[in-house]
Amino acid sequence: MSRRFRRLFRLFGLTVAVFWSLSMIFPASAQENWKSPPPPIDRILETPPPPVVLLSPHHQWMLQLEQPPLPPIAELAEPEIPLAGFRINPRTHAPARQASYRSLAVKAITSGAAQPLPLPQNARINFIRWSSDGNRLSFTLTQETGLELWMADLRDRSVRQLTGPILNATYGDPCHWLPGDQGILCKVVPADRSKPPDESRIPQGPIVQENLGRKTPARTYTNLLEDPHDEALFEHYLSSQLEIVSLDGKRTPLLQPPTLIDDAIPSPDGHYILLTTWQRPFSYHVPVYLFPQRITVIDRQGREVYQVADLPLADDISIRFDSVRSGRRQVNWRADHPATLVWAEALDGGDAGREVPLRDTVYTLQAPFNEAPKQLWQSQYRFRQILWGREDVALALEIWYNTRRLRIWQLNPSQLETAPQLLIDRSYEDQYSDPGSPMTAPGPYGWDVLRFAADGRSIYLNGRGASPQGVYPFLDRLNLETRTAERLWQAKDPYYEAVVDFLDARAENLIIRRQSQQDPPNYFLQTRPEGKLVALTEYQDPAPEFAQVRKEVVRYQRSDGVQLSATLYLPPGYDSKREGPLPTIFWVYPAEFKDRESASQVTTPQNTFSRPRRTSVLFLLTQGYAVLDDPSLPIIGEGKEEPNDTYVEQLVAGAKAAVQFVVDRGIADPNRIGIGGHSYGAFTTANLLAHSDLFRAGIAMSGAYNRTLTPFGFQGEQRSFWEASETYIRMSPFTVAGKIKEPLLLVHGADDSNAGTYPIQTERFYEALKGLGATVRWVLLPLEDHGYRSKESVKHVLWEVIQWFDRYVRKA
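Below the sequence we write its predicted C-alpha cells.
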C-alpha cells in the first residue's frame, strides 16, 4: 500500500485508521474487536512501572521520573509524517510516538525524601538535560502545538517556563546548556514559518531515479523520501533558527535565515558552536544521516570562523561492517579542553573490505582554528571513540568486526611523539575477559572525562563480571602505570548488584542498584569496605503474582560439544512430582560468534528480578506453562568460515539440545512444546518449524521470512545476496514454507519501521502458507511499529498468544 495514502488516512484519526488498515488487507469478516488476556495479566499491564532514576553530575541530587502505564492506541493515531528514515509529529515538531515521563521528583542523594516538582497535571516531559554544575536541569513539556522549554532549580525545587511551544525537536535534541549562567542553546521553529506545502493532486511527471555505474549498495531502510513533495516537507519541518535562551526566558537569535540544522553543540567553554547542517541533494535511497553535510564552527554572534567539512551524499558506503563515510567524521569537541575540535578520517576510503595497514587517523585542532590540524593517533582497526582524561592521558578505542577484536590504547595528547600504549586487547565476544568500562565524571568544563583515583595514576573500571560461576558485577581500580587492577567491590549471592556511581575519590561511598529474584531493583548507599547499606529508594514489586515463580539459569551441551545455557522459569507452586511435565514454551533469538569458547559462555545473571512487561512470554507462567527463555542458539563460524553458511544445522542442533534437557529434567512433555520469538527470533521460529519436528506450534512476531528482500545484508550477515545466494535462500523460511506442518501464528505491526522487517514479509509468508494448506493465522496490528506499545494491542497480542498455545500446545 502507498505510504502517501496511509499518511492521508492517518490524519482522519483513530477510527478511520484502524478500519482502513484492516479492511485494505482482510475481508470484513476477518476484523475482530480488541481482546484482553485473562487475570492476573490484565491487572499487571495496568500497573505503572517503577520510576527511572537519574543522578546529577556532581552527585548532589537523585531525580525520579514517573513512567506512565501503556498508552492508549489513540496516542499512536496522532498525526505523523515519515521523512528521510524517521517519523515526526507535524503538530509538535517532535519525534512521532515519543514516550514521555509524567512527573519529576527530586531528593538529595544522602538525605531526605523525594519531593515532586510543581509541574502542570498530565505533563508530557522529554529531553531532560543537566546543567554543568548539576543544580539545574532543562526539559520540554509537550503541548498541542509544540514543545515548551522549562527549567528547574533543584536547590529550591522551583520550576520556570522559559519559552512557549517553539522548540524544533524533529531530529535530535533541541537544546544544549551553555556553561554557568550563560543560558541554553536551542533549535527553534522559525517565527515566520508559513503553512506546510500542499501536495498537488495532479502529478507533474514520473518519479525517476537512476544510477550511472556507481556502486551504491544499501541495507533496506524505511520511511525514506519518495518525491519532491517529501523533499519540501523535509525542508519545511526541519528548518530551524538557532537561539540562545537566557535563564529568565530572553531569546537571542544567532542564525538568520533559518537553515536545516542537524545539531549545534557549544564548545566546553561556550565561546564557539559546532554547527552541522544538511545540504542538497537529498536522497530517496538512504536516510538523513547520510545526506550531504556541512560542518562549521561559528562564534556567539553567529559568524562562521572555521569550516570543518563539506561532505557529499554518502550513498556508496560498502555494506561490509566497519565501513564508514569518507572525509572528516565523528566531529566533536575535546571534553577536557575549552575549545579543541576532534575528528577522524578514514585511510581506506571508508571501505572495510580493503586490505590496508591502517584504517583511521584522528586529528585535533585548537581554537582559534588558524593552524594546521595535529595528528593525534592512527588506528589499525576502525576508530570508535576517545575518552579524554587530562593533558597526559586519553583512552582511544578501536574495533574490528571480522575478527571481533577490541583494543584500547593509552595516549598522551600533550606529547604526540610518545608512542601509544596498548592497554586492552581482547575479543569483545569473550565476556569472561571483559575488564569493565572506564568510569567518568564531570571535568573542568562540565563535560564527562575519565575519573581518576586519589593517587592520580589510576582509573576505575565498572564491569559486568560474567564468569563460569555466574554474573557478578564488580568495581576495579586500574593503575595505568603498572597495568595492575585491584578489585574493590563485587556483587555476591543472592543479589545482583551494580555500581551506579560513587561519591568520593577513593570510591568508599558507593551508590549501587540492588535486586534479587524476590527483591525489586532499588538504590542504596553502601560504604566500603564495611558494607553498610542505606536505602535511597523503596520501590515495590509491581507484579507480586510472580513472587513464587522459580527461576534458574541452566546449562547443557550441544551434540558437537558446545556448552549452552538458558533461563528456565517454572510457574508458582509447581511440583514436578505432583504435576508431572508441563506444557513448555521456548522464546528464542540466535547470535553469531567467531569462536566456540565465547559461544559457550554463560552471560545471563541468575539473581535478577524478572517481571513481565508488554508482550513478554513470562506472562504464560500465570497460565500454567513453563518457559525456557533465550536458550543459547549460537551460530559459529571460526576462521574464514561464515557463521550463516551452517545456520540451519547449528540452529537445529541447539534447539535439539534444549528440548532434550527440559525433557530429561522431567519438566517438559515432548509432545507439548511450543516456540516463539520476535524479529530475528520470529525468523528463527519459522526456520525451526520448517527444519525440525521438535515443536507443536509456533508464534512469530514482526519477523522477516524472505532474505532476498534484504539483499544487501541482514543481522550479522555482511555479504550481499549475490555473494552468498545459496546461504540467503537456504536461510529463508519462505523458500521452505511447504515443510511447515505445525500451526503458526504470525503477528506484525502495520507501521513497522524496522529496516529488515517490512510488513510485506509477513503478508507474503502468510499467503504462501495459506496457499500450501498450512494452519496459520495472521494478526496485523493497526498503527503499531516493530515493537507493540498501545494498551489495546499489547492486551490483544497476549490474548492471541494464550489462545494459540492453549489450542495447539496445551491440548496437543
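The radius of gyration is 27 Å.
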